[in-house]
Structure formats: C-alpha cells, structure tokens
Amino acid sequence: MKPKVILPILAAVTLFSVLSVATIHRRQQSKAEPVGTQTFHVRGQVRSVDVANKVVRITHEEIPDYMPAMTMPLNVKDVGVLAGLQPGDTVMFDLAVTDDDSWIARIEKVAGDEAQPAPKIHFKDLEMERVQAGELMPDFELVDQDGKKIHLKDFRGKAVVLTFIYTRCPLPNFCPLMSKNLSDLESRFSKDFPGKFQLLSVSMDPAFDTSEVLKSYAERYEADTKHWSFATGTEEQIQFLASLTGLTYEWENGLISHDLRTVLIGPDGRMVQVWKSNVWTPYEVHRSVAELLSPGKGSLTGKANTTARTTASK
User: Fold this and answer.
1) I want to staple 40 with a disulfide (CB 3.0 to 4.6 A). Which of 80, 95, 282, 306 is the partner?
2) CATH number of the domain where residue 67 is located
C-alpha cells in the first residue's frame, strides 16, 4: 500500500481510538457521578463509624467557598469505603455534592499524624432523656412563622410529624431533604388524611431563623401553614425539645453540626416512632400514619406508659 494512502488510514484509526476512549471515560464518569456533581477534596479526622447506617462522623478542615471547619455525620453509598476506619484516624476524602444529595465518594487514611482518640462530645448524651415509644410527649411552647405561640397540645386529635431544620444548612441531604420530604408528606396527607395531621419543622437556629425568615422559608417549599408550621423558640426550649427526641447539635464556626430526628406523635400526644437519620422515605412515614389513624389506633386511652416528664420552661 502506498504511503499516501497508509498515513490517512493511520490518522483515522488513531482519531477513532482517541474518541472511543473519551466516550468510554465519559460513560464511566456518568455511572460514577450524576451530572452536575461538585467534588471537594477534604482533610479530616474520624470521630465515629456507623457501618450499619453507612455514616462516618468526621471533624474536617474548612472547605473553601462551601463550608467552614465542622464535625459532621457524612453518608457513604459504598459501605466498603469504611473498611478499616477507626475513630482517631486522619483521612483525606472526596465529598461529592449535588443539588439534592451529598456523600463521601472516596476516603483513605493518611500517614504523618498519629491517631488521636476521639474527643469527648461537647454536647451531652441526650439519648437517655429521650421519650420512648408509647410515652406521653411533654407539652412545649414555640413561636411559628407568623409570630404566634404554639404548643404541642394545640394539635391533640391529629397525627404530628415533627422534624428539625435550620435554614442555613449547607448539605442538601440534611435539612433541605427533610423539608422536601415534609413537602411530599403535605401533599400525601392533604389527600388521604385531611384535617387529621400537622407537620412541624423546628429550627435549631433561633437567633437567625426569626419568624420572618421562617415565613420566607415556608414559601420556598410552597407550604400551607394551616397544617405545616415552621417554628423556633429560645435556646432552652429548643434544647429541651432536642432532649426529648434524642437530637444532638452544637455550633461550629457559624454553622450547626447536628444529626437528624423525625418524630411521629399520635393524636393522643404519645410518642409513636422516631427516625434517626435521613434515609426514611415519605412513603414509609405515610404508611405509619395510615396505620396510626386506622380505627382503634391513636386513641386518647391507649395502653401506653404514662410516665410523666417535666414540661418545657416558657
């Protein structure tokens, strides 16, 4: 074959190979990460590892232009990345963030720093104070998005779904996900249980999340505040409510390091169920409420432990 013919053929074959490799690479990337994913390379220290729930709690350095140094429970999608991790390990990890999710895509221990024991948690262990299923939930007072005082007793006769948020929360699968889920529940409950439910989003950031801020936040989620309230209170009132549900939170560098709690309270004011993470689905809660509101359930004379607890200071 003549050289003038061979050269164009070789060039075409080379170009085809390059394009094929690029296409395969793009396909691999699309499988690994959704379109629009931001990835941050972060250094931190492991505080705890929860393999069962695919969560690792890490004290991390500042993520420039995204998040200050904080201690956060972070999700993983592949539990294998947690293999061998221990509290005190210094790590480098890739935090992947989309519009509605975040997770650790890669994590590895780094040499150079000796492992340090996990420090004592600054917030007290509230789990022992938590109201248990079947116990009467103490009354509490908050102020809603309209500046009106509300109490748990105001919702007697209704199924109450309560969760915790704060409007400046940066991770999409924490507070924003809770609000999206409650928005979904509002639509489901309005259709299936009209007049028989109340949704309550409680802010942990009373200094910033004033009634005006919460009202604007409610509008963002197109909430009907007749049956979905956004409320906060004094620091003492929020801490009291957190202790009843087992929620832990603390301030770090202007933001709140916190875990998650979503609580179902029956029409008789008793604790029914607590979801401790962000993995619950609106379908799951809808099913629990349907069972609760079925005939013979959620009555004011249920056979539950009536242990009395202190009420919130007003």
Assistant:
1) 95
2) 2.40.50.320
